Hints:
The complex is a heterotrimer. By secondary structure, chain A is mainly α.
Amino acid sequence: MIFLDNLINGLSLGSIYAIIALGYTMVYGIAKMLNFAHGDIIMVGAYIAFCGLQYWGLPPIVAILAAMVVCTILGITIEGLAYRPLRQAASLAVLITAIGMSYLLQNTALMIWGANPKSFPRTFINSSILHIGGLSISSATIYTILANVVIMIALTLFTAKTKMGKAMRCVSEDRGAAELMGINVNRTISVTFAIGSALAAIAGVLLCSSYPILQPTTGSMPGIKAFTAAVFGGIGSIPGAMLGGVLLGVIEIFGKAYISTELGDAIVFAVLIVVLLVKPTGLLGKPVREKV
Amino acid sequence: MKMTKAKRNKLIYNIVTFALVIGAFLILQSMIANKTITRSLKGQLVPICCWIVMAVSLNLVIGISGELSLGHAGFMSVGAYTGAVVSGLLINVYDIQDATLRLVIAIIAGGLLAGLVGAIIGIPVLRLQGDYLAIVTLAFGEIIRNLVNVLYIGTGDGRLYMSFLNKKLPEGIVMLVDGAKGAVKIKPISTFTAGFILVLITLAVVLNLVNSRAGRAIKACRDNRIAAESMGVNVTKYKMMAFVTAAVLAGMAGALYGLNSSTVVPTQFTFNQSINVLVFVVLGGLGNVLGSVISATLLTVLPEVLRAFADYRMLVYAVVLILVMIFTNNPTIRSFVNRLIAPFKKQNKSGGDAQ
Amino acid sequence: MSQKKHSSTRMVPVPTNSIVPERDINEIPVLETRHLGIEFGGLKAVDDFNLTIGKTEIAGLIGPNGAGKTTVFNLITKVYEPTSGATLINGRDLHGLGIAQASKLGIARTFQNIRLFDNMTVEENVRIGLHNNIKYDMFSGILRLPRYWIQENRQHEKALELLHIFGMEGLADERAGSLPYGVQRRLEIVRALATNPKLLLLDEPAAGMNPHETEELMENIAKIRDQFQIAILLIEHDMNLVMGVCEGICVLNFGRIIAKGTASEIQQNPVVIEAYLGKKKEGQA
């Protein structure tokens, strides 16, 4: 029973990682950059939803939509202002900029909402507990796993069927050639950031529904772990992000339960290191070769 | 041998760097002697030295070797803990009362252990490149922090007790490291002079390394990995050399830092601290050692002097990181800035950076 | 490295119409490839590549774009690990060695898309080439021991001596990245020579040069061979250069050797003409 409990908790946490990892993986695949600030967009999304529910009295669905809209705009703005000028720059410079952006978001949140943790209000997402056999499952768990599956299917269809989705795949394959084919690369990258950020907002709400403590650093650790998940699954691959996220969530919960609570993070990062050494392209990634 | 222009510029750069550091030390020493120094500044002297060493050593990895390391604070924590334990051991077990001797041994031990950890981490990490390398150094920094969080070390009956994960140590011993409480009951023995000497050693090591065969190989690996390999340069070896040297220096800085106060806690060496040092390096200029010294000093003193700055410190740092990166890496802005400073630059063509 | 060891690796019969010149016939060839090949995802980029180059030979590797010429260089220098066959340098098998180790055995190369150390000076670039020739350890460097000063001086003098080949001593302090294209190409050759190679691989050395510069380059290639007593294998599209300087020429098409021989043999070879100009349509002759 405890095993099943842990497994379900792991799947739930893993689903959150998977949704965040999608943002990382799409941006990495297309803009070839590690958007370090992605984790902090989750935090912003959660704060907006929090404000909507707590202060503005919005219905939960509207609050989530508001969070998604704000995060989308935020994502596009960040990309346009900070990352676009560095499109041709070395990856070192882009990464440092992204780290700066992450700190900017965290500290701005600190200015606006203060350092004191806020307790995320109850919504339909986490209001009930289901009893199945001897298991008691929070509705948040159900919603999280469900959201993950829906998002995954929607994104797979989007990249496979729509014009924009195809443009994204083109840009990720060969930016120069895509540009020559008349694809607006900047717009495609913007759309990618928009989708990733909107997903981050959803992830933020789901994360705070399961772990209802909200503070300016809320997003950074899940963000880094979700990046780990994206690498684990194979960066650039959408099913990879799902697989990596879910596996990592399960590993983390089991590690905490059976090895040591205090070493939970260390275990997750150890997984990252092992994966990168054994199979640097991740479970579902494709190898790349440097042209000489 | 005729001295070339490039050689002369390097020499001037090195002399300026050392003169600045030694001059600052002499001025501060005379201020201490005259008692004209403020209390808060006096308290900052040793930390400033530590942060200078941290910044210069990280610059060796990021600026000279061209790899982004996000776990530099991890090496500092290894050094701080080692320093605290070694110092405690020397006083409790070996009964060495001479503080200077204890400090020297502690700093060397801190450097060695951090270097060892650096070597162990470097072997897997340096096989990776770019963003992956950065994220793995971050992961290692966090793992180190996690591990010291569950580390318990104590001395008693003339021997050392160590335990991991849970405190299974005998009663009545002197605790040196107490899990999440960190290294406790440290006798502060760090001095400004020791810090100054450490800064000088660091500068000598890094500047001499950069201007030598090994340093050129390190820079070659940064500029073009494949070309360097094709010239017979063992890339892993030289990446490792830069990484481990930086780890040793950071460990020494950590030992000095830890022995400057009575406790060291794991939360002092978080990812944020690594980013702090990264800001010093970026603001001082990648590859520019003198720049690291200056920015580490200013950014350590500034929050103390300006309360208003202290409140907005991290916000300002974030903006600075972004702006510096955009200004130095965007081709359009860069050529614009170059045009602005071109007439000025022609008249004053000496100086330049360490490379 | 004993002579015996070398001869043992030659036990395998070499199915090659080798283009080793008379004067090198009794020497162990500098380069010998046996059935060398590589596949990228099922596509054979290079297949069954057999070539032998004598101790002081200048050989050319030509072929249409995409024939796999640079891939051959990447195989010989171990940038790529071949999926079949073997490469021998002075009789030593390169199997399992890395790029740097291969370089230490005496291979040096230039790159089609120039790969200089842009942020370092011209002299420093050449000094990287001298990395394994004039050595001292890290601690001599940090502690500035006498060995540091002696070896630094030797490196400096050697670097200037090498730069003199192309008359580039005056540029020693310039930043490599700021040099004009043609000068960068020459610097790459100097840097490669600094490694004291036995085999020099030049990947399109005349690309981007005007006819006058190309002429000069031809003379220099011959001069380098005579002065350093090394073998040179070059990829080049400028047929004047190839025909003028190469003793043996090997033609590659679709990853396979289609012809080997001297300049005049290659010029008259119908297979080569077909590869370059396409098949004559019937009735059009």
